[in-house]
Design brief:
Number of helices: 11
Number of strands: 15
Shape: globular
Oligomer: single chain
Helix content: 25-40%
Strand order of the largest sheet: 14-13-12-11-7-10-9-8-15
Order of helices and strands: EHEHEHEHEHEHEHHHEEEEEEEHHE
Distance between the termini: 40 Å
């Protein structure tokens, strides 16, 4: 296929990753980059042989050689840039969270027309382990689904010096903290495994900022959460028990399960060596028996390349991307409801 001519807006932490990954793919050609810090944009262009450097995203979007844009800038700027790109006939791949709230995502959906709009929350959808897990859930072997459980918490350990990105734990820049930073991935992964078929009803959530002993872990002035827990219910009688934290005063824990009335599958979203998917099968005669569905080394090679490659193929093949704006809207609706519930102390409808 003919490579898609891509322009990348933002050359910071994740933007530099996009430049590196996209420059190595056969399905895209990076023709332009933009960053308000011209030194970063110029350095990226020089390193990867990119011909055009723009002073800002507006200028890049107006560039006639650019077919599609990757938005790697804070969430509070993505809707404006996405709407502008769609208005000029450009396809859009945006970082996560896709926008500041569900209403902004709805505006993007209304504006994109026949163009491709995709979100990088799909990063963990492209591994072999994910494919096997999704096919297993779809097979019906678990019976009627009951509970999806995700608990992923970390203690930062000893104090480490270094600059912390201001936007990572910021309501005004990123629409929140770890819930949108990692929850976008978690929810995308889990909703994808269940075929994007679950229809959320309500959420009951609680949030906590970094504790007094972990203030070094966040940038000065951070005002969003580093720890979240929630219970989300769905129309199909399924519940999601969710917890994510990256500055938790406790030992590391990774528990991912999808529970049905005939068994439970044990998962892991992130990459690593010795990764294993197992299935506990309920049997009338034998009780509970365990089976290995997949095991191997997941090198994470598709974590960053997957969304970009899929985006380009969706454009050329005229198909939806792995996570389109419609799927990203579901993730955003759940996040919004958790935030509303945490602010009031009562359950909030997912609207």
């Amino acid at each position: 296929m003919e490579p898609v001519a891509v322009g990348i807006v933002g050359c910071g932490v994740i933007g530099s990753v996009h430049v590196d990954v996209a420059s190595k793919l056969d399905t895209v050609k990076v023709v332009a980059v933009a960053d308000l810090r011209q030194d970063r944009a110029r350095a990226a262009a020089d390193q990867y042989g990119i011909g055009t450097v723009h002073p800002d995203g507006d200028s890049l979007i107006d560039d006639p050689q650019v077919e599609a844009v990757i938005l790697a800038l804070p969430a509070n700027q993505r809707t404006y840039m996405g709407l502008r790109a769609f208005a000029r006939g450009k396809h859009v791949l945006t970082e996560k969270p896709v926008a500041m709230n569900a209403d902004e995502v709805r505006r993007l959906i209304a504006a994109k027309g026949n163009l491709v709009g995709a979100c990088c929350s799909s990063r963990y959808a492209f591994s072999e382990a994910t494919r096997v897990a999704k096919e297993f859930v779809a097979s019906g072997a678990l019976g009627q689904l009951r509970l999806i459980r995700c608990r992923s918490v970390n203690c930062p350990g000893k104090r480490v010096e270094g600059e912390r990105p201001y936007w990572r734990v910021s309501q005004s820049s990123n629409a929140g903290g770890i819930l949108v930073n990692w929850g976008s991935y978690d929810l995308d992964y889990l909703m994808n495994l269940t075929g994007w078929s679950l229809r959320p009803v309500a959420a009951l959530g609680a949030l906590w900022p970094a504790g007094p002993r972990y203030q070094w872990f966040v940038a000065p002035g951070s005002d969003a959460e580093t720890h979240v827990t929630a219970l989300v219910t769905f129309e199909q009688g399924v519940a999601l028990a969710y917890e994510r934290g990256d500055a938790v005063a406790g030992s590391h824990d990774e528990t991912w399960e999808i529970v049905g009335d005939c068994g439970t599958v044990h998962l892991k979203m992130t990459s690593g060596s010795g990764k294993r998917l197992t299935w506990d099968q309920a049997d009338t005669e034998q009780g509970l028996t365990s089976h290995v569905l997949w095991e191997g080394d997941d090198d994470g090679s598709t974590v960053h390349s997957g969304p970009v490659d899929d985006f380009a193929k969706a454009i050329r093949q005229g198909r939806p991307p792995q996570t389109g704006l419609e799927q990203a809207l579901l993730v955003q609706r759940i996040c919004d409801a958790i935030y509303r519930s945490a602010s009031t102390g009562t359950a909030a409808p997912v609207v």
